[in-house]
Amino acid sequence: MFNFDKKTEYEDFLELLKKSDSLNSLNLSGLEFEGLDFSKKSFTGCTFSNSKFKNCNCSNLHLRMCFFDFCEIDSCNFQNSDIQFSSFGGAKIIRTDFKNSELLQNNFNGIRAEDVSYNDSDLYSSRFMFSFLKNVYFQNCNLKKTLFLYSKEDGVSYKSSNTREAVFTEGDEFV
């Protein structure tokens, strides 16, 4: 059972990461992860809020109900990942690749994303509200029921995606 008061220390987490492919109910908030290999791991009900990820391999990652709110994610590889019911609210995501991933019903509200690829991904019913998106690519994506409300966009591409099934509003009201 998740205990918000019990924070997992970094060294303890590294041991758990080595020993187990599936981790549940961990409070990993505020930690810094650089150059770690999270590939093919599974996390359920974990919080990484206010953590920093740099040059991490998160390919083929499996996430359910995890929190990355206000994280900094820089130069990470999330290709071929399955991320559902998770939150990246207020996160800063730069130079990161989510290509060919299942990103279902996730919260990306208020993110600042730059040089990010979601190409060939399924973003069904995810939310990008009040977000700043610069050089972000949603090419050949499923955007059914995805919300892009009051988001600022600069150099964003939706080529070959089903934009008619997504909901868009202008980001002029967001400063």
Total strands: 14
- Based on CA atoms alone, the radius of gyration comes out at 16 Å
Instruction: Tell me the distance between the termini.
Output: 40 Å
Tertiary shape: globular
Strand numbers in spatial order across the main sheet: 2-4-6-8-10-11-13
The number of helical elements comes to: 1
Largest sheet: 7 strands, parallel
Q: In percent, how helical is the residue content? A: under 10%
Order of helices and strands: HEEEEEEEEEEEEEE
| Uncertain runs | none
Average per-residue pLDDT, rounded, comes to 95
What fraction of residues sit in β-strands? 25-35%
Number of domains: 1
Structural class: mainly beta
Protein name: Pentapeptide repeat protein
Organism: Treponema denticola H-22
Pfam families: Pentapeptide (PF00805)
Concise structural overview:
InterPro entries: 5peptide_repeat, PA_immunity-related. The protein is mainly beta and 175 residues long.
What does this structure look like?
This protein has 175 residues and is mostly beta strands. The chain has one helix at 10-19, and strands at 22-24, 32-34, 42-44, 52-54, 62-64, 72-74, 82-84, 92-97, 102-104, 112-117, 132-137, 147-148, 152-154, 167-168. The strands form three sheets. It has a seven-stranded parallel beta sheet with strand order 2-4-6-8-10-11-13, with no helix packed on it. It has a five-stranded parallel beta sheet with strand order 1-3-5-7-9, with no helix packed on it. A two-stranded parallel sheet has the order 12-14. The longest helix is centred in the first third of the chain and has 10 residues, at 10-19.
